[in-house]
Amino acid sequence: MTDDAKADDARTPTAIDTIAEEWVDTELDLFPEYRVYVGRPGREGEYADYSPAGAERAIVEVRKALARIQAATPVDDIDVVTKMDLSRELQLSIDKHDAGFDQRDLNVIASPAQGLREIFDLVPTASEEDWTHIATRLHNLPAAMDGYIETLRTGIAAGNVPAIRQVKEIIVQAGKQVADTGFFFQLAAEAKAGDAELPESLRSDLAAGAQESANAYAALADFLKNELAQHAPERDAVGREIYALASRDFLGATVDLDETYEWGIEELARMTEEQESIAREIKPGASVEEAIEFLNSDESRKLHGTDALQRWMQETSDRAVEELSREHFDIPAEVRKLECMIAPTQEGGIYYTPPTDDFSRAGRMWWSVPEGVTEFDTWRELTTVYHEGVPGHHLQLGQAVYNKAQLNTWRRNAGTSGHAEGWALYAERLMEQLGYLDDPADRLGMLDGQRMRAARVVLDIGVHLEKTLPDGSGPWTGDYAFGFLAKNVNMNDGFVRFEVNRYLGWPGQAPSYKIGQRIWEQLRDESARREGSAFDIKAFHKKALDVGGVGLDTLKAALLK
User: DSSP secondary-structure letter at 228?
Assistant: First the structure.
């Protein structure tokens, strides 16, 4: 579609669009580092106020925005969806604030303890001015950290403290940033504007900022060790009240947690049976473990080193985009570019960051390769590229960014884990249906991930609600979870440890993948039932993705109205 054609299709903004746009502006004012994510210039190098006072200022603005959107009258279907989902998100923010989520916001993967550093992965680095902004951010990080520590300290006073397991893990993570080999010192030491060296004064400023940021992480480690740890409970479970709110947050939907737990047990059994069947295709009579051992010995399926991994990721992604755009999806030119990256950290995990609003920064798939890991199996990872790229996250989120003519800024950048991750798991199965996983080894790799996601539903709900174990032998505990996951994934002990610690500290997030997939499949099947012979799967996908990122209850209302 040309720029002129897009302009012709542009929708006249409504009063509800204005409220949504102004809410985005308010968020960018409250959280200026979000500007990096959406590519909005201004206030470079600044952080949000992570203190209790900052949280109070933010919630005042949330309440104002909620009152405005609830009083507004929709003029079309797009407005209906915007009002429904923005109201949902704002009310949830109030509910989480009232429940003290900020006071206990410490976990191994997605809390300010990581976020204050991770923003540096996305900031521009091409010019001397860019590095000046980075130096500013390095100098500003300590104040943001001080505010964060102050908020955690209020949690101590309120008796609202994360579990000791998370505290101990973050002490280790923070220690890595303090070391001479830590991220900040390496960032300053390797700083260049393209191929050009930076002025010595700027290099000195970066070095000073790196030391200040490292000192901030030292202060965090000291606070965690000498204050928070003394009050942190041994119990990993957060309980039903907090869990229900977290589940609503990650899904954008309210589900029956007890029914979902039982469904998770059944889904895990189905995934296990399917995986065992494919293992016998790979090697007659083999167990899953034996089939994996057989595949792991196949040198033709291996990659050596992160450079080879990055090249393979990029080639696989480029091929999928080119082939799927011919027949199965209408992929705009702007969305066809996906950059596959090795992350600068070594924490484990694979993640996606969407393009900026003007596509000046492309969508990116990041692989944070753990220290010491140098060998990768393509049969395990093929479906990961489809999950993070096309038709997974990149198609979904890139399409939302592309739809500027119809969707306001908030709609293009909103969404939930259940919507995004559920679509990505749905996309994995779709690629199987399209013939991209005809090799039994690649299907085994896909099922390895699907089985893990089913196990996470059982584990996460089980631990945090202290449900009865599937075998009826007693209640779930955090310690039991490690062995349970190890039995359902074919990964090393380090991976299992990281994953379970993530689930224990980030309740409701891990199940959102598989629960989201379930809801996406239910919506497709119900649409097919209603439309009968007129049902067109390609048209369903376009209609669904054109809604943009919303909660799953909102998506259901939009597709099945």
Answer: G
In a domain, 401, yes or no: yes
Closest C-alpha to 74, from 542, 402, 408: 408
Model-level pTM? Answer: 0.88
Final residue before a domain boundary, out of 210, 237, 264? 237
What is the rounded CA–CA span in Å between residue 346 and residue 367? 9
* Average pLDDT for 405-410: 90
Non-local CB neighbours of 156 within 8 Å, separated by 6+ positions = 227, 228, 231
What would the pLDDT profile of 458-510 be if each residue is shown by its tens digit?
999 999 999 999 999 999 999 999 999 999 998 889 889 999 999 999 999 99
- Mark whether 276 and 373 lie in a shared domain: yes
Residue 342 covered by a domain: yes
Domain match, 201 and 311 both: no
Whether 376 and 289 map to the same domain: the answer is: yes
The answer on 145 and 272 residing in a single domain is no
- Alpha helix (H) residue ranges in 286-416: 288-296, 306-327, 378-388, 393-402, 409-413
Average pLDDT for residues 241-253, to the nearest whole number? 97
Residues 6 or more apart in contact with residue 167 via CB below 8 angstroms: 106, 224, 228, 229, 232
pLDDT at 7: 41
Q: How many domains, in total, are found in the chain?
A: 2
Alpha-helix residue ranges (DSSP H) falling in 123-182: 128-158, 164-178
Residue 17 maps to a domain: yes
CA 492/CA 504 separation, integer angstroms: 19
**What secondary structure letter does DSSP report for 355?**
P
**pLDDT band at residue 9 under the 50/70/90 scheme:** low
Identify the domain containing residue 213 by its residue range: 3-237
172 and 106 in a common domain: yes
Residues 415 and 284 in one domain: yes
For residues 537 and 189, what is the distance between their CA atoms, to the nearest angstrom?
52
Q: Are residues 140 and 286 in the same domain?
A: no
Burial class (CB in 10 A: 0-12, 13-18, 19+), 456: buried
